[in-house]
């Protein structure tokens, strides 16, 4: 997977050591046309890029660790709903502590909804549920004014469009999309061994998570969109933590468990 190297080498901030933080250049934007999925940095570094911006202009950041020439890549999305706070802790732990094995890499997006995270709301700043806003046959503009409104049109929100562009460039083998509080591993059947590894490592049952889209249509979610659009490259899976999680679970247990299930550790 070598399609993001040129673009990210130009726009990323490379940090020597997992815990270091430095500001992005002024005016940083989402990467342009790309030629590699892994940035040109040594395996022991963390590379940071801005993949887009929220409705209120907050940056949506992604961090890469691993082999610059990785052919096996995991994406972990810590948060899509701003009132679900455990996933970003997993993302931060992975960013700081995980060293992927040779030939692999991990992209960590702590949140794709920084406005909701700041306001502690499920929706983004325009009141859209970002996990109902993906452009699939199951998208609907119903339920306006509720926590589950899919927006005025498919992919209407800048946060959704940023993630779509990012995933089209990275085309990961595995995506772990973390949520709360339904406690389970989303069961799609597309990669049962991966689902079972997640369930075993995170001590969660495999369950079906529906969003109420009509029968015969594809759910307007990240997982529904990725699996139906880019599924030849990999699989996206919803991970639902419980309403309450221990610090150990949402850091070491979940971080190591997801990485091992994706075989990047």
From TrEMBL:
Its cofactor is Zn(2+). It comes from Nocardioides simplex (Arthrobacter simplex). One of its GO terms (biological process) is proteolysis. Keywords: Carboxypeptidase, Hydrolase, Metalloprotease, Protease, Zinc. Residues 24-265 form the Peptidase M14 domain. Belongs to the peptidase M14 family. This is Putative carboxypeptidase. One of its GO terms (molecular function) is zinc ion binding. One of its GO terms (cellular component) is extracellular space.
